[in-house]
Amino acid sequence: MRKVLIVDDEPWVAYGISQLIDWERLGFRIIGEAYDGASAWQQVMQEQPELVISDIRMPGLDGLELLENINKSGLPTQVVLISGYADFSYAQQAIRHGAFDYLLKQVEQDQLEDAAKRVGEYLDAREQPDSSLDLFLDDLFELLDPDNSVSIAGFTLNRRIPASFPHFRFINCLFPEASPDWPALTSPANAGQLHELRMRTGQNKLSILINYDEDNYPLDLLTYISEHLQVAEWTGISSLGLLDSPLSRLHQEADIALYSSAFYRTENVLRYKPVQPPAELRKTLLRLEVSIKEQRHDDITSDVALIAAICRTHLLPADQVAFAYNQIVSLYYKYYESSWNSGPELLTYDNIARQHCTSEELFVRLGASFENAAGESAVNPSGLAKRVLDYIDDSFTEDLLLSEVARNFRLSTGYASALVKRETGSTYSDYVAAKRLQLARQLLADPELSIQEIVQRIGYKDYFHFNKLFKKHFGVTPSKYRKL
Fold first, then answer.
1. From residue 239, how far is each of 73, 260, 306 by CA, in Å?
2. SS3 (DSSP) at 207
3. What's the Cα-to-Cα distance from 318 to each of 206, 233, 268, 273, rounded to whole Å?
């Protein structure tokens, strides 16, 4: 039986609440009543009940202060606050301080029973962290989609996650290697004046939603990172968010900062800052299009090199680097239609960060595509195409770049790209993705495998990247496909 403490400065009200519903039928037992906040706090510390039902307005330590003490202590106790005032400001404060629910006097039997049931369900789910993990990750994929406008308040209320402090940030981290000890999801945890919710969003990636007070405890963020994330290779931090901030926006900001850190390799920990693309970049892209249109190869080379230098000089965020890169790729296909089979591929900002190259190397390779467009021979030495494709087919679950495939067969990357495109009708990335997704579809038939395990088996490190590809390819998310 889970323990319940009832707190009200009017003893007859406390007694009435204790008798209003059949607590034992719902899995609870009343351990006592307290008639002021101070004595209630003492009983909470001694008994550590799973649930406290407390009035808000009491002499001395009131219900909100009692709730705040419980949150600061790190106890997992859930609190349902009761007030005789239908005042939205009270409800706001209750939610902000992490109350599980807020009820008005006179408390109705069905309302109290509903609140107790939901507390029980929440505690049951918390005690079985992996039972609905795939469903949670599927929901999270939808929530963190950039087009989703769900607020932090909506997320925390829906998940019954206490929001004890006014400010929020996402911290996204990449680690040198995955730890088998990482759970895919942890219960909300307290670290002093900072609360955290950790989510494993990739094989070696964590996304952490933190809740703290930036105004009064600004150093808590840096202390938390230095004490808990010191082994992370790269870390990105979002801007400051409030309860009404979109959850997906903060996550995307942290992701951009993370992959910017991994791309430039100048700072291990990077905060997101909105940056306007410099006018020089726009001018150079416009000039580059003219050079491409007029086939001035020397100017193409110099313009592409200048764009690389602009990215490096201004340390443009990874999403803007990807935008500039993909603009150039689009120009390639606009003016080199006859070379579609061997052209460069569009890249996302996380793809770019995983290239493990400088901005100069990234854009130099892109510039070389224009020179190779008409110069690559279409000769196919006997059996070469089959050997290359056999090698890819044997290795597609590994983290294998096209440049590594090309190097293994002593080919240029452009020629290897053209060969794969000519033989399969797909780019290298699309060919590998299709094989991985087909394997994933087969593995989903095994109910013993979690989706996290499947993601790792087929060669992806980022759960959300896989989820997005799977939904694009098959029209539904993996967990929904599994139910078909």
1. 27, 15, 30
2. strand
3. 19, 17, 15, 12
Q: Which domain holds residue 46?
A: 2-127
Q: Identify the helix (H) or strand (E) that includes residue 145.
A: none
Is 67 part of any domain? yes
C-alpha torsion sign, points 141, 146, 147, 152: positive
Residues 6+ apart with CB under 8 A from 474: 437, 441, 481
pTM: 0.60
**Is omega for the bond preceding 19 within 30 degrees of 0, making it cis?**
no
Contact 75, 44 (CB under 8 A): yes
The per-residue pLDDT for range 145-175, each reduced to its tens digit, is 777 778 888 787 666 677 778 899 999 999 8
Task: Report the pLDDT value the prediction gives residue 91, as an integer from 0 to 100.
Answer: 64
| DSSP run (H or E) holding 426 | none
Instruction: Write out the E strands in 75-118.
Output: 78-83, 101-104
Residues 196-235 pLDDT 10s: 888 888 778 889 999 999 998 888 888 888 888 888 999 9
What's CA 282's distance to the chain center, in Å? 31
Considering 397, 425, 453, which residue would you say is the last residue of a domain? 425
Check whether residue 296 and residue 414 sit in a common domain: yes
